[in-house]
Amino acid sequence: MAGMWSGRAGSAATGTGGAARPRRRGTRARGTLDGRSGEAAFEALHLTSLAAPALRGGLTAASGAAARHLRALLGVPGLALADTERPLAWDGPCGHHADQVPALAEAVLAGGRPLVAKDDQVGCAVAGCAIRQAVVAPLVVEDRLAGALLAFAPDVSAGLVRAVGEVARWMSGQLELAELHRSRTRVVEAELRALRAQISPHFSGNALTAIASFVRTDPERARALLLEFADFTRYSFRRHGEFTTLAEELRSIGQYLTLEQARFGDRLQVSVRAAPEVLPVAVPFLCVQPLVENAVRHGFEGRPGPGRITLVAEDAGAEAHLTVEDDGVGMDPAELARILDAGTDGPAGGIGLSNVDTRMRHLYGDAYGLIIETAPGAGTKVRLRVPKYRPGAVVAPGAARP
Fold first, then answer.
1. Which of 170, 181, 287, 360 measures 20 to 30 Å from 353, CA to CA?
2. Nearest CA among 132, 166, 162, 138 for reference residue 150
3. Distance (Å, rounded) from C-alpha 269 to C-alpha 280?
4. Residue 40 C-alpha from the chain's centroid
């Protein structure tokens, strides 16, 4: 079949007539890493892997921990890092050359080009000092100068200049990843603050009104509802952690629905089913509760007669699948698409939907955006997928675990 590829490990090469050509004893496959060159390559990869974690927070004083590994990688007696304002780190025995770092870094940052500093700029009279010259390369993050890498050596060869340039480019890539991570974190935090501001006024007013209605007729129930409201509010406005367990998110949803059932009575029917296997899964904080509130506020509120909301959390191998469904008024799919595309919540519905959709895409990729089925008069079903295991998905301290 055209386009098919097949490979067999260990098959012998054949010449004319199909006769196998014997391999020469002692020869190595072309392009493989072996011998001294292979050892050097693996050592270089190992040193870059050791240096990378210190750069994940950006170019700060903490990134100075990478200097030792970078000096070993370049094989120089002295190495320094600097940002645009000050030196950050020096590694090597000839520490008196650290005083030269600010002027050399400033020269490179002013011109934006690598610099080779000769004996008249770097040399010293200290007996036994091996440093006489230096190579300084700029660190560039998103087209702006962020700092400088300085390698000090007895003399500067063309090979050292190229090596310092390549290491500086690698460092710039690591720093860009750190900047991207910080930007994503700021976006997620801003979206979470917006979600809290969006949800709380409407719900809080209705919940307190419902509690007040029981103060005279059923004070015990009013007291219980007030405690539920306090716990729900405490959870929703906590200040630490981007993730929580699904068990904790469901507990908060249970408190929310208890307060809404106090308001609507038998008109609001609720069904919650959760597989035990998915309860410990780390999920984005407030990723499910807004979907349930949307079902109540825009699916059930304002329609006559009873309504049903169903929440299902299922185990799906490497993922947890969640579904929030209501049999309410639904909405026009075109209007829903407009709301999600614009990233705003319209008056006809969608509170929290665009917010949760955007956060899921930022955290896991576009494949994990919300899947929504709706039509006027046909209710709304929202599907949410969460990977069970994701690096960096750390549950906030104090989050309840099953």
1. 181
2. 138
3. 26
4. 33
- Specify which residues 97 forms β-bridges with: none
Distance CA(94)–CA(178), nearest Å, equals 31
- Rounded CA-CA distance 287/187 in Å is 15
Residues of the chain with CATH 3.30.565.10: 213-387
Return the closest-CA partner of residue 225 out of 258, 249, 272: 258
Token pair recorded at residue 377: 């008069």
- Which residues, in sequence order, are CB contacts of 242 under 8 Å at separation 6+? 185, 188, 189, 192, 284, 285, 394, 396
Enter the tokens of residue 90: 């020096």
Residue type, 345: D
Distance (Å, whole) CA 66 – CA 55: 7
Cα 373 to Cα 48: distance, rounded to the nearest angstrom: 48
- The span from the CA of 296 to the CA of 288, in Å, is 13
What secondary structure letter does DSSP report for 142?
Answer: T
Residues 6+ apart with CB under 8 A from 104: 115, 117, 121, 122, 134, 136, 148, 150
Element (H, E) at 382: strand 380-387
Question: Cα-Cα-Cα-Cα dihedral of 280, 281, 285, 286, to 10°?
Answer: -90
| Average pLDDT per block of 10 residues along the chain, 402 residues long | 32 41 46 64 81 79 86 91 89 88 90 87 84 91 87 91 91 80 60 56 73 84 86 70 86 89 86 94 88 82 79 94 90 78 50 79 88 88 90 57 40
Domain spanning 40-181: CATH superfamily: GAF domain (3.30.450.40)
